[in-house]
Design brief:
The protein is of the alpha+beta class. It has 15 helices and 12 strands. The strands form 3 sheets. It has a 5-stranded antiparallel beta sheet with strand order 2-1-5-4-3, with helices on both faces. It has a 5-stranded mixed beta sheet with strand order 7-9-10-12-11. Strand 3 and strand 4 (363-375) form a beta hairpin. Helix 1 (3-62) runs antiparallel to helix 5, helix 2 packs antiparallel against helix 3 (90-118) and helix 13 (548-572) runs antiparallel to helix 14 (628-639). The longest helix has 84 residues, at 128-211. The two termini are 126 Å apart. The model has no long low-confidence stretch (mean pLDDT 77).
Length: 667
Amino acid sequence: MTIKSKLWIIVLLPFISVVTVGTLVILDSYYDEIAVNQKYAVIDLLKKTFETSIIANEMLLRCDKNKLQRLESLNSMITQIISRLHFKEYQQQELLREIAVQHKELINLYLIYYNLFLSQNMTDMFSPEYINKKNIIANHLLLKAHTIVTKAIFLREIVESKQIELQRRFHVFIVSVTGAFVIIILFVSVKLGKNILRGLKRLQEGIEIISSGNLQYIIPHKSTDEIGVVADYFNTMTVKLREIYLSLEKEILRRKLMEENLNTEISTRIKIEIKLKEVSNQLQSIMDSSTAVIFLKDIQGRYILINSRYETLFHINRHDVISKTDHDIFPKEAADSFRANDIDVIEKNMSLQYEEIVPHDDGMHTYISIKFPLYDVKGQIYAVCGIATDITQRKRMEEELKNLNINLETMVEAETKKRHKHEQMLIQQSKMASMGEMIGLIAHQWKQPINAVGLVIQDLKDSYTHGEINGKFIDDVVGSTMQQIDFMAKTIDDFKNFFIPSKKKVLFDVKTTIDELLSMFKHVFSKSNIDISVKADHNVLMLTEGYPNEFKQVVLNMLNNSKDAIVSKKIKDSDLKGSILINIDNSEDKSRVIVSIRDNGGGIPDDVVGRIFEPYFTTKEQEGTGIGLYMSKTIIETNMGGSLMVYNVDGGAEFMISLDVHKSESV
């Protein structure tokens, strides 16, 4: 009830007391109508409150702007309904005030959360955490709305019960009101006056507190009259002022932070610029200290920087060269070549090396130029850097070295031929060294066939004397004699072939070659009571490529060394039976044929075993030349690509020759 109404009541009470009795019947119908209107107003308030909770909840969950407009319309209607409702009873007033306050708070909360959810990113709005949070808030607000609706229902029930009670009691009231009206008028007048004064006092006190700067203070009031409205305005204004104050504080803090960040950024940029300047100076110093020519050009071929070496060689200042191209500095042919190489680096997007011809004061110089692209922060090529080293002197030296290599190859070839000829001569000397012994062997080989021929001739004389000569006898004599002569001729051919050096590599069977050698020289070893045996399985691969006569010479040298060792040992041990075992086998992978020559001559002294293949080294004092084993190793390893080694074994020494098996046989 407004203050004006209260004042009017106070003024009109005397007049009303006079006309009360006459108007009781009219008042009966009037208050009945008021009660009915209040009842329907409360029912309408209940509906609007319930609808508000439903609309607000949908608006919050769906972030629907159309629901927001409907919510504002309902809020306006509820405010109007509340302003039309005037209850005299404190319970009804208090309940209505709570509904109004809670409804206002609920609307504000819905709007705050609506704006908060609406400001979220679209990706966050569909996350499970966000949806769960939204449902929790919506349920909480819906619970508050349920409380308001419950109070509205309770208010409706009170109004309905009051209406019924009023209708029941009004007739009693009409009878009793006349007598007590004067007292009621006085009581109401005093009560209304105190209510107005109390509200004004609270309003005054609240204004004074707010004026002192306490923006947290809320003026308490329970009435909905002008004083309550003014108090509400002041409270709303205080809330707005508090929000503005907090916002200003935040803005001031934000601006201070921005200012601090700006100062920090400026300081950082100054430091970075200083550091970049230092790095640039250091880089320029490093470039200037280099003996190479260093330069940097943009992708259009314009110079960005050069080092001091470039300045010295091409007589141009580093400041003057900026924005110039190679065509401004060098002849067109050289500049075109340089530019083509730069474009090649840009197109291939990689570091490349070029040999470039550059004009100098003293003529053309050759440079090795390493050119590579430089990239900006976006990864795009913005320049080509080059590091060029003058290799003119090196090129001249390479040319001289090339000519020297050609001459050296000729000299090496001549020396090789000379050495090969010397080796052949040494081999022949080694063969000739035992020529006398070989002639004795030939005489031994011829002794038996000559005796046989002599007997045939003697028998021919006796047969002629006794008349036994006929055609058959002559044929037998001729056949027998020719057989002996062929044997003698073959002996001469074998020794003649042995002394003829091999001209080129041929395929030969290792065992067959050794057997041929033994057929010629086995008698020499038999005279010294030395037994020579050859062992080779039938599945051993024995075909190799090389020089068979030289191979025979190597084997003969090994056999002679074994024979000399055995003969020397027999001086101390006369019962020793000399034995030489020649074993022919293959390596595990069948790629090599291995010939081992093992004797029981006591072995080689440990202090000389490592030197026996050295040229002119001998342990036989005046009897040895020192070239036999050296030439043997040269023939096997240098000429035939094999290996020759010696080991001391139990009771003697073992020479081991290893040669490649011919590919056709190994396959």
